[in-house]
TrEMBL record:
Cofactor: Mg(2+)
UniProtKB keywords: Hydrolase, Magnesium
Phosphoprotein among keywords: no
One Gene Ontology MF term: hydrolase activity
Matches recorded under Gene3D superfamilies: Nucleoside Triphosphate Pyrophosphohydrolase
Cited Pfam families: NUDIX (PF00293)
PROSITE patterns the UniProt entry points to: NUDIX (PS51462), NUDIX_BOX (PS00893)
Family: Belongs to the Nudix hydrolase family.
Stated name of the protein: NUDIX hydrolase
Length: 174
């Protein structure tokens, strides 16, 4: 799963966990945008994940979600909705272990062209592109996707709408 250091070099941490804002971005056809990541030195060790990243300084998670989405996709015309899910995760990436507290925001856009112009140096070495996925494609995918239950979560979201409050997902340790 991709992670990055901020321009200032300092992410916000709380209780030893990196504070992260992620975006479940849906287009008018209810496709979800995922980024294709890989280990910087091993393109074969790859996965798909939602846009997002670490909270910088004193910004809110909502501000971080908007900033990260703009940096990683070039998409700025979004309707940012509620927090859908919260998840704690821990994974190895780029030679270190990342322990994160992630909040997933729902967002909608009509803009489907992406341009990753604001990537950090590490992201430039580890993000191979972006793709819009239908729920059916995601369900059939053989690739690794994070969070691992994303296809089912997306199906529930599309069928039932956003939950009344954020749903806490199982902790994922890779």
């Amino acid at each position: 799963m991709a992670a990055e250091t901020t321009r200032a070099g300092q992410d916000s941490y709380e209780g030893g966990l990196r504070k992260v804002a992620r975006v479940v971005l849906l287009d008018p056809e209810d496709r979800i945008l995922l980024l294709h990541g890989h280990e910087p030195d091993d393109r074969a060790d790859d996965w798909w994940f939602t846009p997002g990243g670490g909270v910088e300084g004193d910004e809110t998670r909502e501000e971080a979600a908007r900033r990260e989405l703009a940096e990683e996709t070039g998409i700025t015309d979004v309707e940012l909705g509620p927090v859908l899910w919260r998840r704690r995760c821990s994974f190895p990436f780029a030679g270190r272990r990342w322990d994160q507290d992630e909040w997933y925001y729902l967002a909608r856009t009509t803009q489907t062209t992406t341009r990753a112009a604001g990537l950090t140096e590490l992201e430039r070495r580890s993000v191979a592109g972006a793709r819009w996925w239908t729920c059916e494609e995601l369900t059939r995918a053989r690739e690794t996707v994070y969070p691992t239950r994303l296809a089912g979560l997306l199906r529930t979201l599309l069928d039932e709408g956003p939950p009344a409050g954020p749903v806490t997902l199982d902790t994922e340790i890779v």
